[in-house]
Write a structure and sequence with these properties.
The structure holds two protein chains of two kinds. Chain A is an all-beta fold. Chain A contains no helices and nine strands. The chains are: A mainly beta, B mainly beta.
Chain lengths: 111, 117
């Protein structure tokens, strides 16, 4: 079962930063936070993951609170192609462990 | 990132027939693969975990005799929807973790859209 809660939908102006929150108040000490996105009728795309520290890659930044009970995915300069459903998932980092998806946040980038 | 490929991307079949969907890890070996199903405007639902060389493990409520999974090699898993009916029409997505990555991130195929007439 999904262990995260996310807002159902959000809008963001093109060129502005998109900040997508995720609550995972029951996260365990050995569980990572993963973010994926799914553009309509495609398979999900990996974005970023983290354990405790904030992370940044070419796609996004991940800010994890000190108590690890919530996190925020930041798309620094949203484009129209970032319109998608964004999923936050918590999971122990073992390749045999399943990923359970919640309902995600539908982000719409507005021109 | 690692590449996972599915085939076919779209399939239309008649009710009562069986359909096979292939999932391949193209540039890495996958001892485990996951199969998901997604209905319109809904999230991905995990159906089963495919294990190379052993039986798949199914999520609660998923019929193992209806959705046959075979993980024949370290790069190939297949899902066969047997005696398909219109209610089986859905978007089927496979995925695999890359053991070479730091936290076993999951990489997804492009998905296979099944339409049962």
């Amino acid at each position: 079962d999904a262990k995260t809660t996310q807002p159902t939908s959000m809008d963001c102006a093109e060129g502005r930063a998109a900040n997508l929150p995720c609550n995972h108040s029951t996260i365990s000490g050995n569980e990572y936070v993963y973010w994926y996105r799914q553009i309509h009728s495609q398979g999900p795309q990996y974005i970023i993951h983290g354990l405790k520290n904030n992370e940044t890659n070419e796609m996004a930044s991940l800010i994890i609170t000190e108590d690890r009970k919530s996190s925020t995915l930041i798309l620094p300069h949203a484009t129209l192609r970032d319109t998608a459903v964004y999923y936050c998932i918590v999971r122990v980092a073992n390749t045999g462990n399943q990923f359970y998806f919640g309902t995600g946040t539908s982000l719409t980038v507005i021109p | 990132g690692a590449v996972v490929s599915q085939h076919p991307s779209r399939v239309i079949c008649k009710s009562g027939t069986s359909v096979k969907i292939e999932c391949r890890s193209l540039d890495f070996q996958a001892t485990t693969m996951f199969w998901y199903r997604q209905f319109p405007k809904q999230s991905l639902m995990l159906m089963a975990t495919s294990n190379e060389g052993s039986k798949a493990t199914y999520e609660q409520g998923v019929e193992k005799d209806k959705f046959l999974i075979n993980h024949a090699s370290l790069t190939l898993s297949t899902l066969t929807v047997t005696s398909a009916h219109p209610e089986d029409s859905s978007f089927y997505i496979c995925s695999a973790p890359d053991r070479a990555t730091s936290a076993g991130e999951l990489f997804f195929g492009e998905g296979s859209r099944l339409t049962v007439l």
